[in-house]
Amino acid sequence: MRRVAIVGVGQTEHRFRRDDVTYPELAREAVAVALEHAGLEVGAIEAAVLALAPDALMGVAHAERWVADALGVAGKPFMRVNTGGSTGITTAHAAFYHVASGMFDCVLAAGADRVGESGDAQLVLNTMWDVLYERPFPLNAINMLALQAVRYMAKYGTTEYHMALAAVKNRRHALKNPHAHLRKEVTVEEVLASRVICWPIKLFDACPQSTGGCALVLCSEELARRLPGPKAWIDGVGNCAETYFMGDRMGPAAEHDHADADALAEAIARAYRQAGIQDPRREIDVAELYAPFSNIELHAIEAARLCDKGQAGWLLEKGEFHLGRRQPVNPSGGVLCANPIAVTAMVRVAEAALQVMGHAGERQVDGARTALATGIGGDHQFYGAMVLRAE
Amino acid sequence: MSEPVIEIEQRWDIHYRHAAGETGSHFFRALRDKRLLGRRCPACRRLLLPPRGFCDRCFVPTGEWVEVESEGVLEAFTVVAQKFTGLPDPPYVVAYARLRNADTAMVNYLRGIDLGDVRAAAQSLAIGMPVRVVFRDRPEGRMTDFWFEPAQR
After folding, report:
1. Domain boundaries, chain B
2. CATH second-level architecture of A4-119+209-220?
3. Record: contact B104-A247, CB cut-off 8 A
4. Which residues contact A169 (CB under 8 A, 6 or more apart)?
5. pLDDT tens-digit readout, A57-114
6. Taking CB atoms and an 8 Å cutoff, what residues of chain B touch A123?
7. Which residue of A has its CA nearest to B17?
8. What is the ipTM of this complex?
9. In terms of Cα–Cα distance, which of A110, A262, A141 is closest to B78?
């Protein structure tokens, strides 16, 4: 297996809507930024992988047709990846496999989403539940993660206050990220007083519906060495699927508890093993962890072994995981401040890459050399992780 | 750049007829008799509810039907206060309960609690509290034939 580097990162600004451009025009914006960042022309791309989440979120079936030109793939190998919320990082994995295998030297991973064009995202997401047994109920992405929050609080004794701390931190971080969708600080009191969506998740515990694009250029070591810019070396890749039924993650016979993110922990452990990371609390300088609701960040931090299970909330209370502290989590503001679903998990990889490249602007973590990015998709069912390192 | 952009409105309204399969069909027929049936895995012996044709853990077909008891414990819940397009009007409680002899939890509405104040309603619920299955008077063989309610201990 060959060594692979991310040599170009592109992101649009994430907003509620982008009415000045269509879906492919938006994707092309991100691709153009990534190519420019890499110092490459589109002709250098040998194959492309598209991040495209469930079709109905955008309302266009088989939308890989519409967007293919924006990835410059006519005449080249092309595929689409969809693992729900983790689509973006699974797409980055697929691009990595292309290059690591030795079959390609320069591969594009890219996509965009337009969640703001339909107010009915939760109705669409309701259709991901089991046709026979679960679809008759109003399950969606928010209440399934509220169910997680309730189990987590019961298991570890945390409260809505600890969830609020994660939201407050990320909103503060997003002030430093010009790409972020929500760039307005909130206080713990405001989060706690915001209206209930699905208790215990309240408005300010929740991500926005975002429109935005993201792209990554991945190269073989041989090609990367010929490029002048900084690289983010992909030193660890891990992926892990969880069981289908949420109810199988509850009770004494369960292998994993829906309170925790044990399959995410396994995906991250696989990435750590490949990267030779033994003590993540010392070796990870910055983490971009997929968490669309404040409660999810708590168990994602724990799955990354940045602290013990059940401890993330108490450490947030002490100011840990903030920019300026030893191990910042989501310096971009994270998913809580921008969620263009198809590429949200790719933005985690992009942000982690920018950090180890030293290109993260105001949100740069000083001296960041090793970064972790994660993604979560389905009903907490598909997990991905990536460890990136500087030269 | 200064010209206003135009919006094109579109909608999806697509019809499907999903097969429930032999296992699902047997479960739904039993609901008409107000009975909940689970499938036991011959390898790990877990009683799976909702029932399925194979055990994901052991990767073997299930075969044995076992009637599931009507009382159990609340395993997870959320009180929904937000209206989502196409989904029911709030407030309502979505809950997972594990019935006494089942090894997995199943989703349904939790009814029979005061939802006048959403936050107070949430505080009145706890994981592990006893719940029971309540059937409607004339079940039709659907998941919505029954729901959970707090059980008196």
Report:
1. 21-150
2. 3-Layer(aba) Sandwich (3.40)
3. yes
4. A316, A321, A322, A329, A330
5. 889 999 999 999 999 999 999 999 999 999 999 999 999 999 999 999 999 999 999 9
6. 84-87
7. A131
8. 0.96
9. A141
